[in-house]
Amino acid sequence: MPQPNILWICSDQQRFDTLGCYGNRFVETPHIDRLASSGALFLQCYSQCSVCTPSRASFLTGRYPRTTRCRQNGQDIPADEVLLPRLLAEAGYTCGLAGKLHISACHPQAAPAGERRIADGYAEFHWSHHPAPGWPTNEYIRWVREHGAVYATPPFAGSRYVRRGMPAELHQTTWCAEKAIGFIEHNAGFQRPWLMSVNIFDPHHPFDPPEDLLRRYAEHLEDIPLPDYLPGELDNKPATQLQCHSGAYGTRGNYPADTMSPTDHRWLRAAYWAMCELIDRQVGRILAALEASGQAEETIVVFMSDHGEMLGDHGIYLKGPFFYDPAVRVPLIVSWPGRIAPARYTGLAELVDLAPTLLEAAGLQMHAGMQGRSLWQGLTVGSLGAQRPDVYSEYYNGFTPGGFVTMLRTERRKLVAHHGTGTGELYDLEQDPLETVNRWEDAAYRSDKLALLERLCDRMAWTSDPLPVRRAIW
């Protein structure tokens, strides 16, 4: 059977509960919901890190952040790491990217001007780390100027923490879709299989959707629930969380959950959801182009995000050394009509499994350095059997604030170890699904804590690099 095309759509900082298919009753996401109904919907999928670079390096290689040696934002992925698109390109695929990559340092003052690349396999590369100007190689900004416009996100009257984004037709999400559509239509004329990575920046902060999408929420603003936060809950949690309560990344005044009004919280939530709605509209356009090109039946479509967003839950915005579900639980949908059986998977899953799964779907061998496991055979019959007994995530001084933090989550419990501090978090997910009450020092949970620490130690040991391959017994 011919190798499938792969349309891989990855948003940035989109938590799991932002889509209708995940139970959100406020957002309108009909296109992604339809994709979910036709394929595999993972209800409990976890990222391997709560910040961008370690997560992206992990799912692109099928290796854990510690193993890739790409543990922090601002690090360069080592040149000897092998990415999925490179493996596909070597097997005859044409690979393209539009939007963000972020597996090396991305800063306007960094060299080279843009993002350092390794042998990543992308033959077509339309780079835009984020929408705002700042890099001479930001292709999105050139596109805006070619349309006779100027990039601007003026203040929004409803809340000083929200901005009015570019109109939908000139938005970076739309530009990513335009590049994807052009790639899909052009490659329909060739026999070679293809991979297209559509790496949308939204719904990453700043919270700046098109104003018309944002205004739709004004009619029922008071119905939008406030963040899940119990006053005083941070008193027995790690100090970094209380620090970030006064401002994201420990910077006072940077989305300060402790001083925002209820209206601020609701507008921020509305803006975030409006950004997700624009993503859905553009996903719909891409899928329509795929169908019109006659390639839908020979294309695997993946929709996912690299990590989540706290969005005020637990009194915190944005991201950091946090392993609450809003920070690390992400949407994951994998669809291929006629090959992937429609199913809703409630078991635990990790993004590290995606690269080996796509390799097997393409009829290729898993790379020897990969640590994830292929789900392909189970996806084709609609049953993954015994899924993971636990999921594991890492934060090794990944961003501001720092710290070395690891997480192990089972169906019933979640343990977060803050290494070197003598502190941590333990949540009874049966009694406390919102992770409000920290049981780390609770004597009644002592045996649970010990058992989970042992399992966490095992998972950390199993991240040891399988490379180089053993060649002899001596």
Write up this protein:
By secondary structure, this protein is α/β, with parallel strands linked by helices. It has one domain: Alkaline Phosphatase, subunit A (3-Layer(aba) Sandwich), CATH 3.40.720.10. 28% of the residues lie in helices and 16% in strands. The chain is built from 13 helices and 12 strands. The strands form 2 sheets. It has an 8-stranded mixed β-sheet, with helices on both faces. Strands 9-10-11-12 form a 4-stranded antiparallel β-sheet, with helices on one face. Strand 9 and strand 10 form a beta hairpin. The longest helix is centred in the middle third of the chain and has 31 residues. It is globular and about 65 Å long. 52% of the residues are buried.
Question: Gyration radius, to the nearest Å?
Answer: 21 Å
How many strands, what sense, and barrel or not for the largest sheet? 8 strands, mixed
What is the CATH level 1 assignment? Alpha Beta
CATH homologous superfamily annotation: Alkaline Phosphatase, subunit A
The CATH topology corresponds to Alkaline Phosphatase, subunit A
Protein structure class: alpha/beta
Going by CATH, the architecture would be 3-Layer(aba) Sandwich
First and last CA, distance: 41 Å
Strand content: 15-25%
Give the SSE order as H and E letters.
EHEHHHEEHHEHHHEHEEHHEEEEH
The average pLDDT is 96
Instruction: Tell me the number of structural domains.
Output: 1
Q: Widest sheet: strand order? A: 4-3-5-1-6-7-2-8
Shape, principal axes of CA atoms: globular
**Low-pLDDT sequence parts:** none
